[in-house]
Design brief:
Blueprint: H1 2-20, H2 25-32, H3 36-39, H4 57-60, H5 68-89, H6 91-112, H7 124-137, E1 142-147, E2 151-156, H8 157-170, H9 180-219
Antiparallel strand pairs: 1-2
Helix pairs in contact: 1-5, 5-6, 5-7, 6-7, 6-9, 7-8, 7-9
Length: 230
């Protein structure tokens, strides 16, 4: 789980950096967060806020967070589910999968909230992609949840994560600074992409095994038969 842990470390480090800025933290969020209207060119940031091209914020926004609870909840979900997907894909493929899901989640938010001037920050979209992948690969896996926030119960992933994504749809339009469309876009991206990513992983694995088998066969020396001469 090297990549999963590395992402957690990067997000935590980025958040500590945000806190170290003090009153300038808001400037950092506007500079490195993804703002739909700015991304589409409908609006422009003040000259003192321009640090990177708007397209790059599709990546930088994935590592910023709006508060301790925002960070902790995201990192707990990534830790619980990320290692399973990393095991299924391998380290490099998982990193690519995670970032692609995050970018697609942001693009979904841009498409549905094109006039928004609020910065989109957080790893939620990318982690939603991980959840989408998990429900495809491990639908019957048992997940420990707190029923009524008190009673621990183990329920199938299909039920838990399926309920979660339905809630995201029902919350569309609720203005509480949560990017519901990013969650939905990331989740659906993860569901759609995981099969292809895993297929490519299996193909690469089989090719590697075939190459190793060929090398082993070449190293095996067949007994030579030399005719005797009188």
């Amino acid at each position: 789980q090297y990549v999963t842990l590395s992402i957690i470390v990067c997000c935590t480090t980025a958040f500590l950096w945000q806190l170290s800025l003090g009153v300038d933290q808001k400037h950092a969020i506007y500079s490195f967060g993804m703002i739909p209207s700015v991304f589409l060119g409908a609006r422009e940031l003040g000259i003192n806020l321009i640090s990177i091209p708007p397209t790059v914020t599709l990546l930088t926004s994935l590592f910023l967070h709006g508060g301790w609870m925002h960070l902790i909840f995201n990192m707990v979900f990534l830790w619980v589910f990320g290692d399973n997907i990393e095991d299924a894909l391998g380290h490099l493929k998982f990193l690519c999968f995670y970032l692609v899901c995050g970018i697609l989640a942001s693009l979904t938010h841009i498409f549905m909230e094109s006039d928004s001037i609020r910065p989109l920050i957080g790893a939620s979209g990318a982690i939603s992609g991980v959840l989408g992948a998990y429900i495809v690969l491990h639908p019957r896996a048992r997940i420990l949840v707190l029923f009524m926030n008190i009673i621990p119960v183990r329920l199938p992933a299909l039920l838990v994560l399926g309920t979660w994504i339905i809630i995201q749809f029902f919350n569309i339009g609720v203005d509480n600074n949560t990017a519901w469309w990013a969650h939905i876009g990331g989740f659906l991206s993860g569901m759609l992409l995981i099969t292809q990513f895993q297929k490519n992983t299996l193909t690469a694995y089989r090719s590697q095994m075939n190459r190793l088998d060929k090398r082993k066969n070449k190293k095996r020396k067949s007994p030579s038969i030399i005719p005797k001469t009188k």
